[in-house]
Each structure stands twice: as C-alpha cells, then as structure tokens.
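My main concern about presentation is that the manuscript never shows what a single data entry looks like. The format is easy to grasp once an entry is in front of the reader. For illustration, here is how one protein appears when written out as sequence plus structure tokens:
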Amino acid sequence: MKKYFTFLASLFIFITGFSQSGLTCSHHKSSRGFTERSNTLSLEYIALTEEYDVHFYFLDVALENTSTDISGSTEIHVTSKVAVLDTFLFELHEDLVITDILLNGLTSTPFTRVGSAVIVPVNFTTGDAFFMKIIYGGTPPTPFTNPLGGAGMTQDNSPSWGNEVTWTLSEPFSAFEWFPCKQSLNDKADSAYTFVTTSSTNMAGSNGVLTAVTDMGGGLDRYEWKTRYPIDYYLISIAVAEYVDYTIYANPVGTPAPIMIQNFVYNNPACLPYFQSEIDNTADFIEYFSTLYGLYPFHEEKYGHCMAPISGGMEHQTMTTQGWFEDGLTVHEMGHQWFGDNVTCASWSDIWLNEGFASYTEHLMWEYFYPGDELSDMQSRHDDIMSAAGGSVWVLDSLDAGAIFSGRLVYNKGAAIIHTMRFLINDDAVFFDILQTYQQTFADSTARASDLKVIMENISGMDFTNYFNEWYYGQGYPTYSIEWNQINSAVFIQLNQITSMPGVTPFFTNDLEIALTDVLGNTTIYRLADIDGSSTFHTLFSPGEIVNIEIDPNNYIINADGTIIENTSLVGIDEKSESVLSVYPSPATTELTVESTETNFYQLINSMGQVVATGNLMAGKNNIDISNLSSGVYLIKTSTEQKRFVKK
C-alpha cells in the first residue's frame, strides 16, 4: 500500500470517500518550512521557550461543525528550568485575538505580540511552577487566507456522506494556528484536558477519555476529554460533527481490562454499515500488534477514530482522525500509537522512526492477516523507491516539508529498510525484542535513530554501522549481477554490484540471498555474507546441475535486476597458491581437517550467515569435529582467509 503525503485538505478532497484501496496514511501537512521546533519563531525566541518545561494543557473552547471560529481559553502549566525566568513566551497565530492572560488563572498580566510570539513578563526561578490562562478567540487561518499555513483547523463537508465537519490537524507546526502552545517535539506535556462546547446536535472527539458530557443550556453540550498520558503538542486534536458513537473492545494478552475502541462515525444511516467490518478489524489489529510491539501504550484510556473529510488519516493520540476505513490506512495510523505517539522522533530529520515503522506495520498486517499480500506490498514499495536514483531516508533538510513527508523515501524506503533490518538480524524473536525494548526505553518520550541503533546492537550483538551508513544516511540502491560456473558439486559465484548513487554509496555490504534451482526442480536458498566491495566471490554447493539462479528471491533488499551469466572459466579462488589454509575433505562427514601455516582463531559459518562454532587453529594439522552440523555448505573463516567446505 502506498502512502500519499498531504495536500491542504480544504483544497484537495478525495471525491469517492469510500474504500480507496491503494492509499494509506495521508497527513495534510503545512507547506511552510520548519525545524523540529517552531519555524515561526526566531532563534532568540525559540531559546526563550526552552527555559520552561510544559506539564499540562487545558483547552476549554467552543466550536461548531459549520465554522472554524473558535473561542475560549487555554491553560499552559509549566515549571521554570532556569535561575531567572523573566519572560514566558508561547505561540499563537496573529489572526486569533487574545482578550486576557491570567497568571495562575487569577492575575491579569500584560503581554506583547511579535508575529506569532506572545511575550509575557514574569519573575520565577528554577523549579517554580505556574500557569498562564490565555483567553482568546477568532478565526484560524485557512489555505486561502494564509497560503503559507492554514492547516491547523479546517471546516468542510464530506463529499460522500454530506456531513459538515470541523477538525484540527497540527503536524508539523500548525498547532499554534488554533491554540496557544509551545511547539517543541522534545517537550511533551505530562497530560492534557480538552473541553469542547458545541451544539447538542454535534459530538466532539478528542484525546483520552470522555469523562463527561455536560448540558450547558441553550442547546449546547460540553464534551470533557482528559488524557493523563504524556502527549506532544501536534497530537492534541478536536473533531466536531454530527456523529454516532460506535464502540467496540479489544482484549490483548496482558491487558488488565478490555481496551475501548471508540469510533465517532458520521451520523448518516448508510455510513456505519458501510465501514463496520473494517472498523471491527481494529480490535484484531490492536491484539496482534500488542504481541509484537508490546501492549498498546494507551490501554488505560482508549483507542478510536473520528471521521473527517481528509485524504487519509492523522495519528492523533488515542483517537485518529480518518477519512474512511480500510485496513492498510487503519493499521498505519494505529501503528503510530507506538511509533510516533508513545515514542516520538526527537527531530524531524528522524521522521523515519514515526513514518517508516508505521508503514512497516502495514506490511506486517498483510503478512499475518492476508498471507501472500505482503509480497506485492513490498514489491510495490521497491518499485516506487527505484523510480528515482537518489535520496536518503534520513532527512537532511528539515526545513523541506516535502522531504520530511516523502512517500517514496520516508514511508516506502523507510519501511523497506526495516524489512532489510529484519533480514539481517535473521531472528524474529530478536527483531521484535529490539522493537519492544525501544518502546519500553523511550516510552512517553522522544528518540533519534542513533538511539534505536544502540538498542539494535546491544540486543543482537551485531554492528549496524554499515546498515545505517548505507541504507539510512546513504542514498540509492544496488543492481546485482552474477557470473557463475559449476564444476561437479561446486558452484562458483562472482557477485557484482553497481549502485544508483555511486558518489554517495559506492556499494552495499548487506548479506544477500540467492536461490539455486537444479535440473530436478530442487531450489536451495543460500545467504551470501562478507560482501565488502563491488565484486565478491562465493563458493556454494549443489549436488544437481544448476538450471536457474535468482537474486534476492524473498525481496529483502531494494535492488534492481542485473544480468546472470554462466562463465565456464570461473574457478574457485580457494585454490590460490598463497593460501595459508588447506581444508579437506569436502564433502566431509564427521571430521574436517584444516592445515594452517600459522596459529589463528576460526569461525564456522553456515549458509545463513550464522556462526555455528569457533575455536583455535594451531600451526600444522588440525582436526575439527563437525558431526553435529547439518548437511550443507559452510565457511571456515580466520582473520586472514576463508574457505568453504561441504558437510554431507
């Protein structure tokens, strides 16, 4: 499933709105430049926002489903981080009028405004806790009134179902367009309350638990949502429409109580029946991914959806905003609850930690629930990735919104290199242990790709430096070609590669599978290791005559098709005269003899690249017991040389 990145929702709405196969998560991002902190502030002002720590947001606002007009108040509860805090600075779009600012909700406080910056003089010291209550109102900008922004709050009607909806979407830096806030990825609020007053014909969805619906009189109700989990500024959300509440439950292993899945679906008699089966699948998804990633991180509150006429979905914490229901879209946004919401990227350059893993969640869904469909899923991702030569998953320019939310690189290549990571680890128990440990280590916080790398290496015992340099920071992909020759049971393979961006990544060192098929139709998959250049030599074993060779048969590696040519002059380099090792017999049954001209340490490595035995060689003749090894081709490797032999 392809992930399409966003358009401004007021300008681009999918007309069908039903089961748009081929689309997954589609945020409508602002087209402005940004960094991991607000791009609307000068560096001087950004520095001032880093002098306090946000603990709590309390939004108490009035909204209707027919307009983006907003009025009410927001409290920002903070603690001073510096010895002298004389300025409290937050952001609010200049189109919104501030009526008053109350220190600790009581004392009217002077303020000044410079663009989106609101500057309040204060007098606090390290550890002092206080809050500002900002009373404000107005009409947030739209793409029409503010071409460089206007994504924070939108009103529109569903072209498919006819419902009028007002909704918010703040990623990456549009939260300030509708509520006062600090836009920093690395300062999650410890909790948030979102109270929304609207006409009693409407319902309002938001984060956390709906603790009350209070009759305010005059045909108005107040929806009182509370989340007590840490939450990043861009994940706070509101959606207002004429909804019906369709609630189901999931029962993951290890949860102390069923998890509520609360869905606000358009109040159209045809809407819920149309999507009900897809909505019901959400429970199965939560249960399954709780076994892979760890228990759903917000299990004490809920998961759910609010419908809005957007071209995909946005992973608002505990209550995704979604345009329709389709398994690929639903599971992508749900995957974000782990990767993006529970653990958030600490920098927009590392957005892969959010979008790459959410996209790979789709792949895992196809693999488990629709076996076989994961093959076409990964192939379509590879095709998209290779539609252009370059570009890295790591985002070099975090001021470029198109790069940050690149469907080709961040979403599709991001998912594909996770599939490569899984292949290199070669043990699903270890792979998912890494993902669970990452979730546990950085729960309710933020992380960078380098943090994940440390966990990968600590748990697997492998070195992932080349992987990150080539597949994450590097660019391009290899095109593999093979020259081969068979002499009796020995199959000699010369693996050659050229890369699409040789000036950046001259070659890729990852292991590679090749499949050998003999004249009797038997296919054996071998894992080529020790790829340390653009051309490497490998000796394999096949008792039958080879009639076909396939490169990367399971599609673990992004690669283009080269040539496969039989070369009858190709012979084993193991026979070179300067060799310090002599290995025989081959095939061997119970014992392998190794003659060495020097003392050395050795490893026995199977065709899957796994070390199955180690030991020391003495100068002279050495006998190694191989009776416990399975039949196949093995590599004996020392610090200076390697030889292959066959175990019968």
